[in-house]
Amino acid sequence: MPKLLNLTILTLYCSLIFWLSSQPTLPTPMLFMHQDKIFHMGAYFIMGLLAWRLFKDCFSKPLFIWGISFCFCSLYGLSDEWHQSYVPGRDADVLDWLADSIGASIALFGIHLTKHKFGKEKLQKNT
After folding, report:
1. Tens digits of residue pLDDT in 54-83
2. Stretch 22-36: mean pLDDT, rounded?
3. What average pLDDT does range 103-123 have in this prediction?
């Protein structure tokens, strides 16, 4: 059941991003230049976490889980930019895709560090 739940959550999240990308404009006040890159990083940070949750249930090798999670997020970001190029009022931006990929990689790197740290502490408590 967790695989199906994780798949459903990731699919719904990707659908939300697709829907937001289909809007001609988003109601966000402009506070500083390039703030949209922060939004992209945050959105794909969450996607990175969700992708990792799904793929960790499907595969056992940590490096492969990280790689497939990153590739999924990065390719989804690329397809999202391509999709936006067809939406009136929106455009595709390589820097947005880069921010997407960076956000996902930060999440995945954070998972790696956290699992490594807590894994060591767990081993030390058992000895």
Report:
1. 999 888 888 899 999 999 999 999 999 999
2. 82
3. 77
pLDDT reading at 44 higher than 70: yes
Q: Which residue has the tokens 């992708």?
A: 51
Burial of 104 (0-12, 13-18, 19+ CB in 10 A): buried
Q: What burial class does residue 98 get, using C-beta atoms within 10 Å of its C-beta: 0-12 exposed, 13-18 middle, 19+ buried?
A: middle
Residues 101 and 72 sit within 8 Å (Cβ to Cβ): no
> Could you tell me which of 13, 20, 87 has the C-alpha nearest to residue 28?
20
Alpha-carbon distance of 34 to 95, in angstroms, equals: 10
CA distance 3 to 69: 15
